[in-house]
Amino acid sequence: IQLDSPVLSANQMSISGQTQVQAVPNLNPSSQAYACPITLARLQGVQVRIDGGTWANATTEAGFTGSQTGTFTYTANGLAPGTHTMDVQTTDTLGQVQTSTTTFTVAASDPPPIPNGARAGSPAGYRAMLADASVQGTVQLSWDASCPVANTNLYWGYGAGLPTQLGGSYTLSGSACGMGNTGSYTWNGSPDPASDPSRLVWWVIVATDGVHTEGSWGTDSSGAERNGTQASGQCGFTEKNTANPGC
């Protein structure tokens, strides 16, 4: 099996390749005889699986079955960002199987923004309410989920951690990771503002690509990106995209 380089676009991977039946060398020592390779086998089919999943048939060229050489193509859709393992196996008419394994990486797509909490309209960008008034530290969050995102994180800090001037950095005290993308989340263990001199807890919901890139934190009153272009470092997110693509 010979595999070409995978072609990647968004969450799709396409690959093509060639496969050939391997014949047994003819060892006839006679100088009068033709020494043609010998085989009764012919190509039967090609299957592909991603990350150890179910085998799926690749698309083969016309006349592939019954030939000694042939080409094939395969396309996988809906792949999550990250590194994937692909197994390609070809079978012949004698039931023999040959497998080739390769890896490829799907790049993380840029996360679109969570709507600005200051935006007017209905529904509001963010809403928060006590999920249960009798349970301290439990807050029900909701946000506009009409702009699809892979996942969301919540970052929070105390009032003392807010920047003292426009464009300054935020001091984070914690996070809630992987809240999903439904627009609703119960924040258990939310902090008590009474422990801060300002009696304030601030928080921001941030869209992510589900891997390592977080989206915009929104803009401050000067129109600048909150906390600049640096990533939070929370929840394993080390990159930040402020272009706000998608919606």
Question: Can you tell me about this structure?
Answer:
The chain is an all-beta fold and 247 residues long. 0% of the residues lie in helices and 38% in strands. The protein has strands spanning 2-3, 7-9, 12-20, 43-50, 56-57, 59-60, 69-76, 82-92, 97-106, 126-130, 138-143, 151-158, 174-176, 184-188, 201-208, 213-214, 239-240. Strands 1, 2, 3, 6 and 7 form a 5-stranded antiparallel beta sheet that branches. It has a 4-stranded antiparallel beta sheet with strand order 5-4-8-9, with no helix packed on it. A 3-stranded antiparallel beta sheet has the order 10-11-14, with no helix packed on it. The protein is rod-shaped.
Could you write a compact summary of the structure shown?
The protein has 247 residues and is mainly beta.
| Counted beta strands | 17
Based on Cα principal axes, name the global outline.
rod-shaped
SS-derived structural category:
mainly beta
Which sheet architecture does the biggest sheet show? 5 strands, antiparallel
- Given as residue ranges, the uncertain stretches (5+ residues, pLDDT < 50) are 115-126
Return Rg in Å. Answer: 28 Å
How much helix is in the residues? Answer: under 10%
- What's the mean pLDDT score? 84
The helix/strand order is EEEEEEEEEEEEEEEEE
Total of DSSP H or I helical runs spanning 4+ residues? 0
Q: How many angstroms does the end-to-end distance come to?
A: 43 Å
Beta-strand percentage range: 35-45%
